[in-house]
Design brief:
two-stranded antiparallel ribbon, Pemi-like Protein 1, Chain: D, 2 domains, alpha+beta, 87 residues, single chain
């Protein structure tokens, strides 16, 4: 078990992740994490790139304004720019 202390950075509270957790979950700088409160604790899961790509494609496919869809897609990498149709 590894214990970490919470510290303040600006208006946020921060906790560092132990190296073992970072290595095990393949977390890298810039990755997104999901935090879920469960039974008096917190479950932390990384969002993998393929899931992010799918969400972005679905959102872009729902937009009625092509300009907004293009702007959203321009924020992602080249291989993320395919738009999924709305079902």
């Amino acid at each position: 078990m590894v214990i970490r202390r919470v510290f303040k950075s600006g208006n946020s509270l921060v906790v560092s992740l132990p190296k073992e957790v970072v290595d095990n979950l393949l977390i890298r700088e810039g990755n997104s994490l999901i935090f879920e409160v469960k039974a008096g604790g917190v479950l932390v899961k990384p969002i993998n790139k393929s899931r992010r790509k799918g969400i972005i494609k679905e959102v872009a496919g729902c937009l009625k304004d092509d300009r907004l869809a293009e702007e959203l897609l321009s924020l992602r990498e080249e291989d993320d720019r395919e738009v999924l149709p709305v079902e």
